[in-house]
């Protein structure tokens, strides 16, 4: 059974998650703030951490950065009520392998956890849209074209995800195997995390106009 | 799955009003036009706010109104009487937090008219003998006019903007001319004044006289700047407090209210309740994350509004993803309208729990995709009398040189694909 650790400071939400996921996954622990989460994750060594983006004590990013310094193999799926570009791009660049909003249905969430556990990336339509938007435009001043540009195929896969197709449907429509679609999405994730595109961060913070 | 450019089955369409106002658009509360009374200014006041209110009403800079009162005060105290009368016939603004009324832009013509009225009144009062004497009134009027020329805000918009008023003053040719003319008036007024009273002050040395003239002149030139700077600082502090309060409230709402709304949407609530929670979430999010003033005439917000309209009318959630942005030209408007029609149609007929709308701005074209996973249809089986929606979407897009493809088959859902060349029509 996949071991899951829950990090969220909203108790109602936490107990809801526990009830939904308890049958399919082994919930090895939960925490409501950054330090407790880092300790608990290191101690219980889960396969997947479901991570709230907004947390007292530094936010989900702080948990990601602390844990990934010591344990690279623990995978993170960010779960948030926010779909602000800054939050989404922020946790992905800190190392999360996917991002879903808290309105996701329980079966979809279970599928996303399995996907992340299997080493794949989970892109919601909105995240795909953000990535297309962020990698949009000219490439002046880009250091590494390999990392700072999406291939035509990757772009096409992302467009289909942004249009609301599941990986399986994308595969069927583009005449690819599901495995190939997953490979493309993982490669986009890697670019998103490693790209030196300086506009990426600025673009994300520009989108948050509070 | 069949790819067709044939009509779809969805039958007749109720007219759609794409131009109807968004319910989330913030309405600026318009204060009912106050009748004849002058509303004293709360934000722009030195004594009682009378000059500020009068200036706003007449469309001249309050500085000018103040100068006018001051000059008239010399005519046997007439200005003072007028000021008190104006105060008696004016009313206080209703509430502290009231939205500031759009202030009429001061125009040079109105300022000139005010100057003429003051001059006329002065001459009239002089004839009537209500007068402190030519030696005092004319020099002071001259100097005051000079100060007003420098400090009254005219038609040049730049000086309305926040920033260092001194800097703004010296930029531009108009500013320089103002300073020269104003300075000349100030010092000639002062010079005239001291020349007239000179014999009486014979005891005082010439040097002392010079210093006094210079000090008063500088006071007239820089005094208004100091008060304006103080006003500006106070305004900035108020603004900062407002935005801090807003950020704090946003953080709180974000955390608690959005969570509650998310919980409701995941719970086994009725579709109506879930729809309500979803709409509330969208509105709150728009308020939290959008620019204080939503940019007018951009494609992105126009597409995002489709979700609100469809959810309101059919209680079917709509996922919107927009990549890139562009000014909302005719082609963009056509795309938004066509996407909206397709989304309405999907929400009404497909039976799908979710409609996805995707719009991308590419260098040479706009693309739009409206998709549902509903019951779909066989495009070959659509009777010709039920092709309304497809024709109306196709008509809109074709008029702008674009193309429409509808992909559907029974049980497979429907996708409407729209392509429009950019920069036409």
Keywords:
heterodimer; A: 210 residues; alpha/beta; Rossmann fold; Arc Repressor Mutant, subunit A; six-stranded parallel β-sheet; 11 helices; B: 425 residues; Heat Shock Protein 90; 2 domains; six-stranded mixed β-sheet; 12 helices; disordered N terminus
Explain briefly what this protein structure is.
The complex is a heterodimer of chains A (210) and B (425). By secondary structure, chain A is α/β, with parallel strands linked by helices. Chain A has helices at 11-21, 34-44, 59-70, 85-93, 106-117, 125-134, 145-148, 152-162, 167-173, 178-194, 198-207, and strands spanning 3-7, 26-31, 48-52, 75-80, 98-101, 122-123.
Structure overview:
The complex is a heterodimer of chains A (210) and B (425). Helices cover 54% and strands 13% of the residues of chain A. Chain A is α/β, with parallel strands linked by helices and 210 residues long. Chain A folds into 2 domains: 1-119, Response regulator (Rossmann fold, 3-Layer(aba) Sandwich), CATH 3.40.50; 123-210, Orthogonal Bundle (Arc Repressor Mutant, subunit A). In chain A, strands 2-1-3-4-5-6 form a 6-stranded parallel β-sheet, sandwiched between helices. In chain A, helix 2 packs parallel to helix 3 (59-70), helix 6 (125-134) crosses helix 8 and helix 8 crosses helix 10 (178-194). Chain A is globular and about 45 Å long. The N and C termini of chain A lie far apart (42 Å). Chain B has 425 residues and is an alpha/beta fold. Chain B has 2 domains: 38-239, no CATH class; 298-425, Heat Shock Protein 90, CATH 3.30.565.10. Chain B has helices spanning 50-58, 62-74, 78-88, 108-128, 134-151, 165-170, 173-197, 206-266, 271-289, 299-314, 330-349, 388-399; strands at 2-4, 38-39, 90-91, 318-323, 355-361, 365-372, 403-408, 414-421. A 6-stranded mixed β-sheet of chain B has the order 1-7-8-6-5-4, with helices on one face. A two-stranded parallel sheet of chain B has the order 2-3. In chain B, helix 11 (330-349) links the parallel strand 4 (318-323) and strand 5. In chain B, helix 5 runs antiparallel to helix 7 (173-197). Chain B is elongated. Chain B starts with a strand and ends with a strand. The A-B interface holds A 10, 12-13, 16, 54, 81-84, 101-103, 105-106, 125-126, 128-129, 132-133, 136, 159, 162-165, 207-210 and B 246-247, 250, 254-255, 258-259, 261-263, 265-266, 278, 281, 285, 288-292, 319, 321-324, 354, 356, 358, 360, 369, 371, 415.
